[in-house]
Amino acid sequence: MIIKQLEVGTMDNFCYLIGCQATRKALVIDPSGDVAAILAAAAHANLVIETIVNTHGHGDHTAGNAALKSQTGARILIHAEDAGTYPQADDHLQDNDRIRIGDITLKVIHTPGHTPGGICLYVEGHLFTGDTLFVGDSGRTDLPGGHRPTLGASIRRLMELPDETVVWPGHDYGPTPSSTLAWEKRHNVNAREYGYYVAD
Q1: Across the chain, where does the E strand assignment appear?
Q2: Range of the domain at 140
Q3: Does residue 163 sit within a domain?
Q4: Pairwise CA distance, residues 183 & 188, whole Å
């Protein structure tokens, strides 16, 4: 599996290019902006973008959807609960759906709280968390559709995955661009509140 983390947009957003080594088919998570950079990264890796997935419907994560779709013909996917925030999506996701790209299968984990239709994507020990979980922090809940107890429940669900799971967040807001669930359990500022703190 190929993973390219790209910082795009104007809010320190991370976009992800996920590729299948065998088939060279690829998926893009949250094309926030700078579509030229995303296309260049795909071309450099000899990948063909077939699918765009939004972890939620906020504009800083969907801004590049239309331009990337026009350049690649990729279908756009978003959770059904956030469908109203991006009505141009081609299909709507539900919890536990599987997204196949070449020989890779990503599992959809519905993680509401930042938005009603927030999702994370889990594949081969890697967790793409959008604005649900950041390195050392979590998504805000003071925007329309946000709800802190719901976000806490979503994050506790994520913490049931293996400790070595790599966390790939939706923004470059932490001390490092990625972490692990084990690190988050010990260092995330919300760990005690959300009920998953593990002491050193």
Answers
A1: 2-8, 13-19, 25-29, 48-53, 75-79, 91-93, 98-101, 104-110, 119-123, 126-130, 133-134, 137-138, 166-169, 179-180
A2: 2-194
A3: yes
A4: 8
pLDDT in tens, the chain (200 residues): 999 999 998 889 999 999 999 999 999 999 988 899 999 999 999 999 999 999 999 999 999 999 999 999 999 999 999 999 999 999 999 999 999 999 999 999 999 999 999 999 999 999 999 999 999 999 999 999 999 999 999 999 999 999 999 999 999 999 999 999 999 999 999 998 998 888 76
In this prediction the pTM is 0.96
| 101, two tokens | 């790209």
CATH of the domain at 51: 3.60.15.10
Which of 161, 50, 165 is closest to 100 using CA atoms? 50
Answer whether residue 199 is part of any domain. Answer: no
Residue 105 lies in a domain: yes
**Does residue 200 sit within a domain?**
no
